[in-house]
Amino acid sequence: MVSEEDEPKNCAVCGDRATGYHFHALTCEGCKGFFRRTVNKYPGLTCPFAGSCEVSRAQRRHCPACRLQKCLAAGMRKDTSSLSVHPSPVFAHPGPCAAFAHTHCRHQHLHGAANRQVHQ
Amino acid sequence: MVSEEDEPKNCAVCGDRATGYHFHALTCEGCKGFFRRTVNKYPGLTCPFAGSCEVSRAQRRHCPACRLQKCLAAGMRKDTSSLSVHPSPVFAHPGPCAAFAHTHCRHQHLHGAANRQVHQ
DNA sequence: GCACGTTCAACGTGTTCA
DNA sequence: TGAACACGTTGAACGTGC
Questions:
Q1: B55 and B47 in contact (C-beta within 8 Å)?
Q2: In what residue span(s) does the Nuclear receptor domain sit (chains A, B) (predicted)?
Q3: A62, A74, A78, B62: which could join A12 in a potential S-S bond, CB 3.0 to 4.6 Å?
Q4: CB-based contact B35:B50 (threshold 8 Å)
């Protein structure tokens, strides 16, 4: 039987293997990272061609504009609809604290990671 | 068909479906967990904006400060009178940064990413 | 049975490296 | 550019006490 694991696990943007829901869309790691970087840096990106470039696994690098377009078309969005842009979702202190923790912290990191099948 | 609309089963904080009374207010699971975590960890949380952020089901994650504010406004509180199970909560609330900084340790590269059984 | 605390997978974000 | 890692919050499921 064709199990459910390979069927609905395709990236909504390029068709690559999706790793989960990122920014409200089922996407791969590549499109997740691309969207995160691009949507802030180049919101007004325009396609030098017809604006209908193919966005497949192999072609996705060729036209960032159309890729971003398809990301948005797939429903990807930063969750900042009504509020102005939050620099960080939590305490708005992305700088010193994170840096400090990163440099000086040794976390035990004892995640049990038991098999717990939850439906979400 | 159950008349769900007549039942006032909405979270007093975010309007999501409430699961019962938690900390003296009718709230959802999310706000219950949020309040329990936050009221101990970051009692001095402040909103980086005007302090009047929307706290709805969709927006509740964006501003913990305003969410906590609304939790308190809804009447949520830790009842330490009869449930003083905690030996000593160790507050001192010097700010969220110190909470991380006082860990003061060294980074350790552990492969925390175990095989996670994604079942979705 | 309800309320509380705990657990942990899912997810967002920053960083690093090839 | 993208895979992997690090670290945090979130919230549903779960166990427990009253």
A1: no
A2: 8-83
A3: A74
A4: no
